[in-house]
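Fold this: RINT1 protein
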Amino acid sequence: LNKPEWYLTQVLMWIGNHAKFLDDRIQPILDKAGSSVNAGLEFSRALVMLILEKLAADIPCLLYDDTLFCHLVDEVLLFERELYSVHGYLSSFPSCMHILSEESCFQRWLTVEKKFALQKMDSMLSSEAAWVSQYKDITDIDEMKVPDCAETFMTLLLVITDRYKNLPTASRKLQFLGLQKELVDDFRIRLTQVMKEETRASLGFRYCAILNAVNYIAAVLADWADNV
């Protein structure tokens, strides 16, 4: 259960290793018979169906172990990325994202995603470098003087988007968007709490850093507004 990468990698190897044989030997036979079947894609589809069976059997066994469940999700997302980008798998075919979209699994995914995001926010705001810009010594890059915590937070949101963007239904994607909105509001509350501690020094270093953080986040969210 703790090594889903073993069978996921094995399937990717099988698909890669058989590609030339299927293209050179099997596809011409299908073409000659007037079939529209793509041998390589059908081979991939059959192997992915095996993975779906395996996931359906394994997920109930690790649903409440955060570490194992997160590892499984991470490995499945890596597998899906390579399956589509390297092997040309079709989005209309069955995929692992359908298993991750099933109710009990999906709700668990949302829960652990939120848990780890909040832990990340705790660590980024308690860091010594939280209010310092990574690029403070490079003036032509650092026009917005973005503190490290704001940049890390926006990267966190971007990573979450990247993880859920291939979910098969809009309703599931919207649930993840709801989580992101919660995280933005949580971050806003945290900034407000820090700001209240700094009101006596409104031209102080940290107070200005908070304003820069808010300005940066607003600008990035405005840029993302075109991303359906």
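Residues 4-32 form the longest helix (29 residues). The chain has two domains: 4-101, 108-227.
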